[in-house]
Amino acid sequence: MNTLRKQSINDLLKGIETGDPESVRVVDQEQYIQHNPLTKEGDVGLAELFARLAKTNPRVEIIRIFSDGDFVFAHTEYDFSSEKICFEVFRFEGERTVEHWDNLQLKQAPNASGHSMIDGETQVKDQDQTESNRQCINAFVKDVLIERNTNALPDYVAAAGYVEHNPALTDDIKALNTALLDTEADGSPRIHYQQHHRTLADGNFVLSVCEGYREGIHSAFYDLFRLDNGLIIEHWDTVETVPPRADWNNLNGKF
Q: Known InterPro entries for this protein (predicted)?
């Protein structure tokens, strides 16, 4: 079932390139809940979106795709009038998807350590450690990202071999420590994780979905971690501004 679900999501996302309305048949339009605030509900909304995007000669590359129970989540690169990196999350009931979330960020140049926003390890392994890895990231998000206890970083992040894909950071976790403690002129955190909404895990990969503020702007934080022997060894992310409610095309909310 998980293999079929991942293939159907692969086909759905690749449908962006062609605008083929058949690709959205995996969507259960009667139950579908759309959490992208700028997209209409149901497969009709997606079909309209795909048809519009197809006119821009889009390119869709699925870098990583995972499953966790009734969820399929993917790490993708899109090029439709602008290049963006995205995390897509779909919830299934049976063979059809009934709920969708995503988080997009404009593609940026490789960071000072030479890593892009999408390169790196793709192989899923250690599936027997899925739950322990999920628990590790839950603790990391609470302890370090929300409570900003950066002294605990060595408890969660590998001391050697760590690979960072955030375009503003490096492989040196001192840069992460500095970024998490950075403040605005009024003393408020520049990056402020406030609420942890969801954790999805597949073996050595774990995705966390959080809400907060970046530079005072309401934002969604999607962070993908690769773990090895219980420690974070690699990290990717996207940060997206949550649009004002007046701009929403559905009332389901970003999260």
A: NTF2-like_dom_sf
**Host H or E run for residue 181:** helix 173-181
Q: Are residues 93 and 6 in the same domain?
A: yes
Maximum pairwise Cα distance, the chain: 52
Residues near 194 by beta carbon (within 8 Å), at least 6 away in sequence: 146, 210, 211, 212, 213
Last residue of one domain, picked from the residues 54, 79, 107 = 107
User: Cα separation of 114 and 116, whole Å?
Assistant: 7
Is residue 131 located within the same domain as residue 194? yes
pLDDT in tens, 60-90: 999 999 999 999 999 999 998 889 999 999 9
Reduce the DSSP state of residue 218 to 3 states and report it: strand
Write out pLDDT tens, residues 233-246.
999 999 999 999 99
Residue 121 maps to a domain: no
